[in-house]
């Protein structure tokens, strides 16, 4: 009887799987040909073949006390650690520098007394155990920027005061600490954006009253040249609203730059503005209006496509006048719309959509599946100390492949407000690390509506539905000892018990882990690789053969987290290096 029941259940589940698999055929794209197609509409709605789930996500408290508030957050490759840091100027954190070390505090005004600071403003955070190791930043990292270089070293630029023109390096090893090159940049890069380029170098764009960009010099060198960017001067309004500009590297090597409500395409080699895009109406999108922006997944269809479509999405932000009113304690509702722009088309138009709720200061993360997560922030006000109300406790899932009006899903709410100076990060296991929030100018835990937040949570997106766990592929191949080249075929072995592991049911994606601060995740990109074939082994072992990205314009050199995704359920990711 038991056996009979088991067989019946198996048959039922197979029938269910088959009917779902058939429902999405015929597959509308030429996914594997590439070559002669000039342009493939990247996000035409397709009937989803994702496994159905009713799970709207879950929350887990990972740490009671990260000791340092997470204004800036980045993962370190291959180490199962994140680096968290704040500013040096906000007074004591909850952890001292190791071995009784103190650092001299820079003198800012004449007559100021010499003093020392013995507290850490940066820690390395263990993603499993939540243990922290204090690190020592010397110069002020307040509102700075960063990114992982091709060899996995964190390169980190700017900040305030003595940190404004500094470049800092943090290598990945068990006892590595910050190394700093003060005076490396031509000016104060405070609230600027850093982006890796195809040759592995970094550009730093803007900053407060810095209407220019420059390229991070080689380690130990000092920069002498910067280049004017009139867009930044022209889009500065009475409260700026154009700091931390959104910068994305397009698939043709050009940079998309959005400041306030205007955007351009800049060629970083010739230093010319190639194109200005239409104005994105509705309000301001950058600090202190602090909207969100990400590149939608870059889909590769083969090695020879002439144009690889790239599409930018911008969501939320605040009305032009919101920060002035927030100063007076009046909190306007944040912007509720999003715009999508295909930046590889000659004359694209913004396509507008509406989020379930308004959002300012949120993060926009590329999930391993190709969906987008909107998380953190507030529904009213702007960035700035005490400038926001009504925290956005519910993350929202955005599925770019679904038909319009079905793309947004509101997920399970947290109980912890994550507003100004909060951050988040996609982890290799597919969970989301959620950290920080400090709307006060020092660490403050009492007598304020929104205390400094040192708890760290992990959010489980819908694909981590416990009922889907049996459909989760497990990657067997390790890539830690090799560097992949561009346009190369490679195999990934994985185990998965499901039958019907076919090309339309599978994705291989690679994710560039970003540097996240102030609602923008610098250098973030998700690339969906072309799959050439899938081989079935005798047991549950399978091999998917995919092609690495065609060039460093599509995927700048460095570390990525690779995922194998089966019908919307991603494996745990593995680190790969390309370049
Ligand atoms: C790693 O990258 C950093 C930043 O680009 C560079 O300064 C350093 O020399 C590199 N280290 C090695 C060992 O190549
Ligand atoms: C763009 O932003 C500027 C500065 O905030 C504002 O004055 C202008 O009206 C905006 N343009 C549009 C079309 O919304």
Automatic annotation (TrEMBL):
Domain Galactose oxidase-like Early set residues, every copy: 472-578
Glyoxal oxidase N-terminal domain residues: 71-463
Pfam family, one: GO-like_E_set
Protein name stated in the entry: Galactose oxidase
Keyword presence, Signal: yes
CDD domains documented for this protein: E_set_GO_C
Keywords for the protein's UniProt record, in alphabetical order: Signal
Signal peptide: 1-23
């Amino acid at each position: 009887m038991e056996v009979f029941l088991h067989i019946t259940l198996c048959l039922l589940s197979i029938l269910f799987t088959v009917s779902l698999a058939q429902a999405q055929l015929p597959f509308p794209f030429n996914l594997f040909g590439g070559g002669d197609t000039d342009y493939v509409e990247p996000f035409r709605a397709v009937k989803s073949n994702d496994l159905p789930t009713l799970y709207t996500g879950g929350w887990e408290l990972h740490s009671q006390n990260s000791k340092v508030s997470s204004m800036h957050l980045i993962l370190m490759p291959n180490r199962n650690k994140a680096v968290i840091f704040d500013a040096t100027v906000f007074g004591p954190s909850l952890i001292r520098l190791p071995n009784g070390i103190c650092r001299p505090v820079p003198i800012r005004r004449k007559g100021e007394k010499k003093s020392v600071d013995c507290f850490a403003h940066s820690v390395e955070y263990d993603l499993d155990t939540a243990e922290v190791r204090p690190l020592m930043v010397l110069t002020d990292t307040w509102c700075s920027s960063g990114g992982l270089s091709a060899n996995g070293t964190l390169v980190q630029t700017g900040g305030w005061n003595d940190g404004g023109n500094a470049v800092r390096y943090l290598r990945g090893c068990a006892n590595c600490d910050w190394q700093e090159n003060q005076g490396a940049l031509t000016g104060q890069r405070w609230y600027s954006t850093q982006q890796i380029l195809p040759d592995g170098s970094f550009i730093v764009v803007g900053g407060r009253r810095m209407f220019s960009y420059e390229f991070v010099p080689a380690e130990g060198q000092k920069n002498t040249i910067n280049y004017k960017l009139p867009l930044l001067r022209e889009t500065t309004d009475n409260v700026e609203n154009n700091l931390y500009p959104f910068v994305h590297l397009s698939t043709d090597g050009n940079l998309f730059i959005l400041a306030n409500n205007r955007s351009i395409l800049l060629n970083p080699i010739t230093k010319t503005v190639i194109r200005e895009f239409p104005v994105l109406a509705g309000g301001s999108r950058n600090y202190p209006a602090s909207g969100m922006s990400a590149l939608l997944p870059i889909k590769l269809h083969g090695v020879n496509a002439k144009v690889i479509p790239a599409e930018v999405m911008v969501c939320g932000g605040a009305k032009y006048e919101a920060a002035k009113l927030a100063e007076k304690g009046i909190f306007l509702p944040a912007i509720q719309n999003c715009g999508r722009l295909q930046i590889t088309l000659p004359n694209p138009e913004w396509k507008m959509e509406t989020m379930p709720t308004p959002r300012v200061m949120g993060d926009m993360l590329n999930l391993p599946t190709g969906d987008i997560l909107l998380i953190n922030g507030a529904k009213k006000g702007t960035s700035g100390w005490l400038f926001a109300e009504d925290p956005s406790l519910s993350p929202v899932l955005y599925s770019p492949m679904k038909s319009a009006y079905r793309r947004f899903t509101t997920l399970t709410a947290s109980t912890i407000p994550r507003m100004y100076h909060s951050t988040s990060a996609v982890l290799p296991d597919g969970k989301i690390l959620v950290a920080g929030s400090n709307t006060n100018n020092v660490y403050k835990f009492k007598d304020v509506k929104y205390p400094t937040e040192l708890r760290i949570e992990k959010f489980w997106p819908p694909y981590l539905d416990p009922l889907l766990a049996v459909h989760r592929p497990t990657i067997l191949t390790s890539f830690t000892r090799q560097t992949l080249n561009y346009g190369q075929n490679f195999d990934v072995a994985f185990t998965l018990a499901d039958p019907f592991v076919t090309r339309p049911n599978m994705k291989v994606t690679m994710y560039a882990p970003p540097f996240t601060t102030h609602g923008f995740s610098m250098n973030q990109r998700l690339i969906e690789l072309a799959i050439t074939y899938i081989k079935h082994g005798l047991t549950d072992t399978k091999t998917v053969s995919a092609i690495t990205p065609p060039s460093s314009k599509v995927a700048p050199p460095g570390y990525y987290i690779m995922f194998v995704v089966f019908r919307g359920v991603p494996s745990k990711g593995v680190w790969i290096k390309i370049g």
